[in-house]
Amino acid sequence: MSKADKKAAKRQAQETEASAAEKAGAASKQMKRAIVYLAKESPGIFPLALLQAVMEAAYPYIGILLSAGILTELADPGRSMSHLFRMALLLVGLNFLGRRMMDFGGQLLDVLQYTVLKHIERAVAEKAWKMDYAMSADPRINETKQRITRWHYGRGVLALVGQVRGVFQALVTIGISIALVAEFFRAKAVGEDRTAALLNHWAVSVLFLVLLSFSIIYSIYTSFRIQKYYFKTNETSEKPINRMMYLMDSCFSKYRNGKDIRMFHAKKQISGKLRALGGEYLREIEPAFRYERRKTFYSILISRCFDLLVYLFVGAKAIFGAFGVGSILKYTGMVTQLGDGVTRLCDTVRDFLQNLEYVEVYFRYLDMPNATAEGTLPVTQEIRDNYEFEFRNVTFAYPGAPGPSLSGISCRFRKGEKIAIVGRNGSGKTTFIKLLCRLCDPQEGEILLNGVDIRKYQYQEYLSFFSTVFQDYQIFDFKLGENVAAESEYDGERVKEALENAGFGERLSTLADGLDTQLFKRFSEDGVELSGGESQKVAIARCLYKDAPYVVLDEPTAALDPVAEADIYQRMNRFTRDKGAIYISHRLSSCHFCHRILVFEEGRIAEQGSHEELLAAKGLYRRLWDAQAQYYA
């Protein structure tokens, strides 16, 4: 190897070492953060876990030591029945007391872990609520969120409680077992013959320890290989499980989806999808199952062969008077506990190291910065009283899309100006609204509010600038008043007024509980089911109640008949007389009262002007109008 090659190899080794050290440092920080997090959420969780570990480690030795003493006493010709009775009573009492204490401690620990689990789920949900709208639609982020919510006690931050408990329990078990091992080797066989001398020879003890070590190491190695195999296949096997959970949630846990499932006999199709995903999961995980069965068989075989040698060795020393017959139970149990303790320690440490990745995933999710820049400028009352929006050469494409949804959009609109946006499906109308409301940010160009890029304004203040009704609006399974106000505490008179202005007044008068009427039946058998048109009126009432400076209606009347639609637009026009407003609708009859109409086509503004100007231009708007004219006549 040349000097240059040696230097390159040395440099690569140093970089690898530095990278490993950096990863170890990062993992250490995350682990400290996780422990502090758990201790903060539940200060008693680690002390209780350690106490539980001590009890669980010591409990088996109650039976081993007292049973050995009883057996030794029984084998003694001069045995005392009263002493036997006291030992038996002590054995039963300590077993009962120990089991009850462990049960109580385990239940209390479960309560604390459940409490922390709810904190974790709440933190994940709050992060989902606070992240950018565009980020919440990212399938990779959603898959990470679903993974975290399925970990429960087995992975992630909460798994540290069980792992700390497992390590401490293993250490206590190993400590007690080592004390008994030392006692076992100090006991010497009695006699002058060759067998007694052989049993007392140091080489036999060394051989015994070597075989014990081999049995333990092989068990640890097998467990490690099995876990590593599962860990390797976990990445691919989790995907069909994620899809199954999503499919079941979207199809079976949402009451209103039941209509389409029944009417279109979709049960068979859904069941087929679930079976296919289940089959995909089994195909991914089956090699790990086979590998586990094979490795576990050899591990158990070696362990049982060593157990046989232990009984022979311990029994031989007992026969030659090294200790009483009852000690056979004590020392064979000691060997079993020692092996279990060492195996548990190694398994727990391995799980602990593997769990670092899950802890990192959890905190990386919580620490994920929003893609939307958080501005600092306030949206002042002066801006609310006099504003102008401008799109300046804006282009936007959704992640993974083959092309931009909007391209080179430029337009302006002021306070008090009513804008209608029309166009075929997929022309970019709703995307335009999302950019205006800053649910997404453009990749090119800028959107200005009074000449300032909207990304420089405080995000929540900017969002409060708009009252909206989207075409995929959501009516929650809350009470009617809570749905309109979007909060539990609200002004009842304002809510009623908003419902009246949205055309829901007549329906409201039929509801016995008024604003306290529970909507839908998820939380109450007496919940009221709303029709599509009624739901849209509640959504419009929510828009009116917010009373923001700018109103955006994205096809708000799609479920209403033309008469009801005309009534809603007249009401909205009165409500927004001093406000700016954007209306999106496929029914062009709603456009004639707007100051200006923007006609979208393939992500661009193809035409703009008043209703009369666009009809006279005989372009796309005229063609769309003529296609609907028969209904207006």
Report what the structure shows.
With 633 residues, the chain is of the alpha/beta class. The strands form two sheets. A six-stranded mixed sheet has the order 6-7-8-3-9-10, with helices on both faces. Strands 2-1-4-5 form a four-stranded antiparallel sheet, covered by helices on one side. Helix 2 runs parallel beside helix 6 and helix 8 packs across helix 11. The radius of gyration is 36 Å and the shape is elongated.
Strand order, main sheet: write it out: 6-7-8-3-9-10
Distance between the ends: 91 Å
The proportion of residues in beta strands is: 5-15%
Number of helices: 21
Helix content: 55-70%
List unreliable stretches of 5+ residues: none
Gyration radius from CA atoms, angstroms? 36 Å
Structural class: alpha/beta
Q: Based on DSSP secondary structure assignment, what is the total number of beta strands?
A: 10
The average pLDDT score comes to 81
Q: What is the molecular shape?
A: elongated
Largest sheet: 6 strands, mixed
Brief summary:
By secondary structure, the chain is an alpha/beta fold. It is built from 21 helices and 10 strands.
Supply database-style keywords.
single chain; 633 residues; alpha/beta; six-stranded mixed β-sheet; four-stranded antiparallel β-sheet; 21 helices; 10 strands
How is the secondary structure organized here?
Layout: H1 3-41, H2 45-75, H3 81-130, H4 133-136, H5 139-151, H6 159-186, H7 194-200, H8 202-252, H9 258-263, H10 267-319, H11 327-366, H12 381-385, E1 388-396, E2 406-414, E3 418-423, H13 429-436, E4 444-449, E5 452-453, H14 459-463, E6 466-469, H15 480-485, H16 492-501, H17 505-509, H18 532-546, E7 550-554, H19 562-575, E8 580-584, E9 596-601, E10 604-609, H20 611-617, H21 620-632
Parallel strand pairs: 3-8, 3-9, 6-7, 7-8
Antiparallel strand pairs: 1-2, 1-4, 4-5, 9-10
Helix pairs in contact: 1-11, 2-3, 2-6, 2-11, 5-11, 6-11, 8-10, 8-11, 10-11, 16-18
